[in-house]
Amino acid sequence: MRILIVTHVVRKNDGQGRVNYEIVQAALAAGHTVTLLAAEAAAELIEHPHVRFVRIAGSRLPTKLVQYQMFAWRCGAWIRAHRDEFDVVHVNGFIAWARADVNAAHFVHDGWYRCGFYPFRLLHNLYHAYQVIYTLLNIACEKWAFRHADVIVPVSQKVAGEVRALGIGSARVQVIHNGVDVGEFTPGASERERFSLPSAPFMLLFAGDLRMSRKNLDTVLHALVQTRVDVHLAVAGILHNSPYPALVASLGLTQRVHFTDMVMDMPALMRSVDAFVFPSRYEPMGLVLLEALAAGLPVITVRTAGGAEVITADSGMVLDDPNDATALAAAIERLASDPAYARNLGAAAREVAGTLSWHAMAERYLAVYEQVHARRTAHAMPSNCASAPVKL
């Protein structure tokens, strides 16, 4: 097949970019040719003889809102000019003003806007007003993009529900969970000294954007105050402009919370802790959650976090309310006070991650491509000795 993938970046150290990177690798291994319409791609892909990289330059106009629209217009114009060169066109959310065969839904702005935890208000201040306008525009654009795609591929059942809420029929929706590198993220020897973590206490890990309230570190900190056992917390994420060090100090947790700032070697950090806590108020499908499962960590998460749907009672703890610090504290205490229970959860978590490898994810995307290509080929079959037009 001749495959076109349209995205901003295609590389291993980016969430959505990693998904597309693995799809490209699987497609090349299967003998397909791939064109990447993107702003940036990994060097090893660009250099591959069966990869064509078409760079779409970013705009220098002010605000991401305008920059993303310019990117979408440029991509749309290129696709319309070259559409006949491809058997499958794969886009990611709203990224191009053009029809597509496959649209991977990594995030649905309508779901974020209506989830109950959306933090911005139109009349609060200029920054809030910009964020609301940005979100509403993205909602409109995503509706258009999903309605102009043959198949929509949400990254979780949670996202699939948000796609269907936009009026997209279930027959056009095929969920494919994100993948994880089960070889890179694996149980192993602890390296707490390397990360300046104390060796003795039960150590939780929280990892995420420390500037965003939806990641919900605040509830973790309030839960830590309520725990009656010796539990410490490692917090991985960029500290610049984060309000949480001040909150830690105000709660009297300075000796129990350890900020590592940005960590490049997350597998090593995960091997150095005892459990992972991820009570995100809104999450489509957190890669870091899958990485924790692969590392064999017992996971505490919440139903509002995409990815919780892959966790069973044997492989993790899923709470109902992301803001219930008391329930979170009880879950933390159970893990910290029952080592056998924690070990069993971690072993089962590792087994779950084994079903979610990057290779398995990429093969599922290729199967969708095959379905789309077969359908397009069938529609293009001659009828009454004349070629029938292909309709997207």
From TrEMBL:
<keyword id="KW-0808">Transferase</keyword>
<dbReference type="GO" id="GO:0016757">
    <property type="term" value="F:glycosyltransferase activity"/>
</dbReference>
<protein>
    <submittedName>
        <fullName>Glycosyltransferase involved in cell wall biosynthesis</fullName>
    </submittedName>
</protein>
<dbReference type="Pfam" id="PF13439">
    <property type="entry name" value="Glyco_transf_4"/>
</dbReference>
<dbReference type="Pfam" id="PF00534">
    <property type="entry name" value="Glycos_transf_1"/>
</dbReference>
<feature type="domain" description="Glycosyl transferase family 1">
    <location>
        <begin position="192"/>
        <end position="351"/>
    </location>
</feature>
<feature type="domain" description="Glycosyltransferase subfamily 4-like N-terminal">
    <location>
        <begin position="14"/>
        <end position="182"/>
    </location>
</feature>
<dbReference type="GO" id="GO:0009103">
    <property type="term" value="P:lipopolysaccharide biosynthetic process"/>
</dbReference>
<dbReference type="InterPro" id="IPR028098">
    <property type="entry name" value="Glyco_trans_4-like_N"/>
</dbReference>
<dbReference type="InterPro" id="IPR001296">
    <property type="entry name" value="Glyco_trans_1"/>
</dbReference>
